[in-house]
Amino acid sequence: MANDSDGMTSANTGADVDWDARAASFDEEPDHGLRDPEVRRAWAARLRSWLPGRPGDVLDLGCGTGSLSLLASEQGHRVTGVDLSPAMVALARRKLAGRDAVFLVGDAAAPPVGEQRFDAVLVRHVLWALPDPGRALRHWAGLLRPGGRLVLVEGVWGTVEPVGIPAQRLTGLLAPIAGRVSVERLSGDPLLWGGEVTDERYAVVAVRGASGQERGEAVAAGE
């Protein structure tokens, strides 16, 4: 993944990118379209471990063309997707036509879901590009039902001018607002990305409503 827009989704409000124009080719990236069966299976397995075991309501923020939304739907979840790009939303609606899924045009940092609450909020490669990630995390945590979880896939990309958010910073932002927080390193699994990568890629799962002594605890997996 280069240090340009490869690591972003269309929710990136900080970059001068015309996501409507890029929507038609967005799925050509292996980890965007998940067209390769092995890449698709790898993401499906990760989602299965991150999302609730029972079917529930999942909010996919910066959903792009709905590739992760489709995997979540196939695992029995009811999906609401939000993306800033109308073209991306149109493709997501087409991809999940006939399924229990709704897609909305809106800002990932403040999704237009009203009073609806969710069992999981899924966000991939979005948080790092938001102007106030701490505020977004607090808002997202407020959209969870008790026991719900934030599933955040992030990273740091590039070597000359790296962009992203380090795992340590993200877990620090989550400490005041979440219970148990786990970090899962993803860089070492080439199947997720369609090839070997050398930069920092990880997932954080933060569960709301854990006991007080667990609040803010970060457990780094795979280190």
TrEMBL record:
An annotated Gene Ontology molecular function: S-adenosylmethionine-dependent methyltransferase activity
GO biological process: methylation
Gene3D superfamilies: Vaccinia Virus protein VP39 (3.40.50.150)
Keywords: Methyltransferase, S-adenosyl-L-methionine, Transferase
Domain of life assignment: Bacteria
tRNA-binding recorded as keyword: no
Signal peptide: none
InterPro entries: Methyltransf_11, SAM-dependent_MTases_sf
Limits of the Methyltransferase type domain: 59-152
Stated name of the protein: Putative Demethylrebeccamycin-D-glucose O-methyltransferase
